[in-house]
Design a protein that fits this description.
3 copies of one chain form a homotrimer.
Chain A lengths: L17 E3 L4 E2 L2 H10 L10 H6 L9 H17 L2 E12 L8 E13 L5 E11 L5 E12 L37 H4 L13 E9 L2 H10 L21 H11 L1 H4 L4 E10 L8 E13 L5 E11 L18 E12 L1
């Protein structure tokens, strides 16, 4: 009887299956401190209990991306251990903020499968939900990955492709209960620019950069209990450990403070692509483009839809070449909604 | 008057002496988070307050090896500053779990001395106890080290060799008060294998590996306030900083989740050898052998005796060569008892 | 409308201006654990809640240098983003200890300006104060930096040079409320040497050393939300990332435990120079010189004035060459007051 987990293969996923992921995790002040140690995170709502209380919350929540990484990390042994590629995200929603002391667990429902024409791999779509200790959904998102078949003779399943929103509408977004920007202190937040100051189409160069070290991305990725071998084991991939895509997301988001200090809370994830792999030694920089703006039903709380791009070459404003493919200097193209004082 | 500690030499240890080690330490959520950041630790009882509460505990204790490392670290300035080699461990017992907010301190009693025939070094045996703020013993273990003589003319002391158990019996082990596996959730724990599923002699390849970085082992070793120069100072040992043996123990134990996810709590340490030195750049993998099984006096709680082997070459199941010496790819050979749902 | 902060230039500072720095920060057990992971910090008052309670405090405060780094870090975007050099410190005082859960913010008042004769740069003097959530001043210090002019045609301001104390007197120092060393446990603290055992002029070699890694100094510097590009971005400074001077201060102070274990609390900063730049790969060692001693108005609590020198070459007792310049092996020359049991 083999005791170790060899992961699921494409033929092991059936539409409708719910996978309950293992190893719940209590997150607390230690995770908050480490997040600030690993990323240049400065959004005030996640840095200061006092600032968050002034915004109507019960102290400072853990960064929205801590919640995302912890929930995501739990899915790796069940969803992406035999994955060839992480293809996309959609319909990501942050529903309830995560506070120090909360315990998170994850579940994923298989919502689509499609075997590739080569007969060796297929695409699996899952909707993952993260829950806290009260069984409240704290966030959910759809993710699709290309997975190897374990048995090449397994018959191709009937293709099921989920109908996914290209973009969440502002009605889909959840403004955390009690949130108010009525007493928002722009001076303490770090910038004067409010929702009304951003124009659709505007491109913001976030200027700062961080050269990534092996120890840092491994410390981060382990903290989320992400077990994918490629991030840790140099013998598995001698050309270099592949950096967890979520590390690049967090790095870019933190860098985006410089120009988007008031884009406080991430509430929606419309889509995202890890355009090129990232390795240690890369200097990650970031730029953003304002894709849309909308008012929420909470007075004073605006939603801003942003494209967040991480680069390895410091380029700004360039995304794809004439062939429609991402340029080699683009690491990440993320489409998300954030909340900002109007 | 010299102000710095030059450490004790062999002739400074007298059988019966009790050394009270300095610098008590409060450990809390920060240490827990760092442990998860430094090692791929996933045992659910140490990851989730809710899971631990379902097992009858007052929330999730700090990892048993955090307790060990903190207690051990305090002994270094008094026991191993002039040590040539760490020779062995015996009779290690975890008595009371350590919770966030506890303050730990250590004491060691000298229980044996034996000068080596070369007249330059000797072996010192100490029994170390760690205490919490209530003066409860949280763990204890025997360790013996080879220490240099400071004064080569000091007479050899009468040799005293302690009578140490080769293996703790199940009666020696302490099952934490209140522990129950009656409502144990194997799905959340990550594996279905229970005590009854393991056979004596069974070998488990834990599959995963981590390539160690300098920053990581130093961060870990400092966190335990271990002051041994060889771990930090490259000028002291230009061929490379020697990685603290406890870092390899924690790494291997964390990797052993994959196949031993339900070996939740470490309660006994029968012995251990740091078979070969470990340096940054090494990819640590691990395998385990089931050495014994026993039922505790708590219904549903089984004890499993495991050999945990860390390797630098990915080998599995091989320990010693024909000459009886550890193979060069073996880093650690640890013999311990863990608790598992029956 | 540009959204990113390009920093202030020399001509932007007016004597009397008060700059309210952004991004308040709640510090807690996570920051404490990380401090111990990044520096070999062992002073018992900051390591153990029980030890600190025995000294009359409400549990263990966060290290005085955590408070300093957090307060300092907030000033970087407003004070030193366009700085050419960090020239000096004076009149630093720790007023109220910082405890886990406190939220810190900073303000700086411009107290001096002087344009340099080259017309391209000038020196700016600021007095920075850190506040907690109750608006108590937790610490304050004066710092002066050389800053580039943004507009070379801007007229030189009237030179204002603040009148700064060369050395704080013991009356300037604040002994934290309730502090007592009446029940001080020298055994647990780690050394027997008390205030009376140190002589003015005495030099102490702290013996231990740490070879610094890139990941470590970046993790530390980010933790304090220090945003200076030179510490993080290798493309900005291809010859190597410059290590934040405060990282060297904390490293040297932690190493000084060995010989100054009872110099528990830092209460005054008389001056300091980052004598030479520090890069990863450097093995930092430290030595101290006793510059002065004084009794405070709290019985049993002595003040000791120390010169703390960090080196890159392991030299001890040598500071400047015949030309009056710091020797190349000197990284830091810090002049501070600490409290010690009499």
């Amino acid at each position: 009887m083999t005791k170790t987990n060899s992961g699921r293969f494409f033929e092991d996923y059936k539409v409708g299956d719910v996978i309950r992921h293992a190893v719940p995790r209590t997150v607390a002040e230690g995770e908050r401190a480490l997040y600030h140690a690993l990323y240049p995170a400065r959004h005030a709502l996640y840095s200061s209990d006092a600032f968050a209380a002034d915004c109507g919350l019960d102290g400072s929540p853990l960064d929205d991306l801590i919640a995302f990484h912890v929930v995501f990390g739990k899915t790796v042994p069940d969803v992406s251990l035999n994955a060839v590629a992480n293809l996309g995200y959609a319909e990501g929603r942050w529903v309830v903020p995560v506070y120090p002391g909360d315990t998170l667990r994850s579940e994923s429902q298989v919502i689509g499968v499609k075997e590739n024409s080569n007969g060796k791999t297929g695409v699996v779509y899952v909707r993952t939900r993260g829950f806290n200790q009260n069984d409240d959904v704290v966030l959910e998102y759809v993710r699709w990955v290309m997975v190897r078949k374990g048995n090449l003779d397994a018959p191709a399943p009937e293709a099921v492709l989920p109908d996914l929103k290209k973009v969440l509408s502002v009605e889909d977004l959840v403004v955390p209960e009690g949130l108010t920007f009525d007493d928002y202190d722009f001076g303490l937040a770090g910038e004067e620019h409010r929702w009304g100051d951003y124009e659709i189409g505007e491109v913001i160069d976030h200027v700062d950069g961080v050269t990534i070290e092996e120890a840092e991305h491994m410390i981060a990725t382990r903290l989320w209990q992400n077990t994918a071998k490629v991030h840790f084991d140099l013998t598995f991939r001698p050309e270099g450990r592949l950096i967890y895509g979520g590390h690049v997301i967090s790095m870019a988001r933190a860098l985006s403070f410089n120009g988007l200090a008031n884009a406080q809370m991430i509430v929606g994830l419309n889509g995202g692509a890890h355009a090129n792999p990232c390795f240690a030694g890369t200097t990650v920089k970031a730029w953003s483009e304002v894709l849309d703006k909308a008012e929420t039903d909470v007075p004073g709380v605006g939603a801003i839809r942003l494209r967040l791009v991480a680069t390895s070459d410091g380029s700004v404003g360039q995304l794809k070449g004439e062939d429609g493919k991402y340029l080699p200097g683009v690491l990440l193209d993320l489409d998300y909604w954030a909340l900002m004082p109007i």
